[in-house]
Amino acid sequence: MTRPGVMRVAKKKGRPTKVGDLIVLSCVGVVTYYSYPPKQNLLAWIFGVPAVLMFWFLFLMPTKCDYMTQRLKPCDRSVRGKARGCRDHGRWKRDAIFATVGRRNPGQRFRMMWSAPATSPMPVPARPPRDKASREANATRGAYNLVMLIATVVSAIAAVVALVPR
After folding, report:
1. pTM for the predicted model, two decimal places
2. Are the C-beta atoms of residues 64 and 79 closer than 8 Å to each other?
3. How far is it, in rounded angstroms, from Cα 40 to Cα 104?
4. DSSP annotation of 56
């Protein structure tokens, strides 16, 4: 019971810590170690442990936004994962991540452009004219895509075989 005129201060929720997350990951690792012994499931351990740690590092680890602001200092707001940004910088951080691998953020297609001009964009031709160089570039890209598809299917089959108990 509080005295009149005295305000109760709500208890602040504790921030997530790396140590707390590592304790949970360690417990999951111990349970997994005894459920799937490395001697019987070596490939699952070789690929699974780095994948889980990378997922935790990119999306779950408590860290700072670290987006370089206009004042040339990193943003110090708390976020979960190195791949995420705070509420102000999340969009630009994702754009920068995609730009580092030479791609465009697919989420840009769904963004509303409030400051866009009222005029409609120029119509894009249904099929642009092709020259010989672009046809050859598409053929090499097709060959590359086929090789990547085959490698993906082979690795998926290897992962399934590795996870099948013997």
Report:
1. 0.52
2. yes
3. 42
4. I
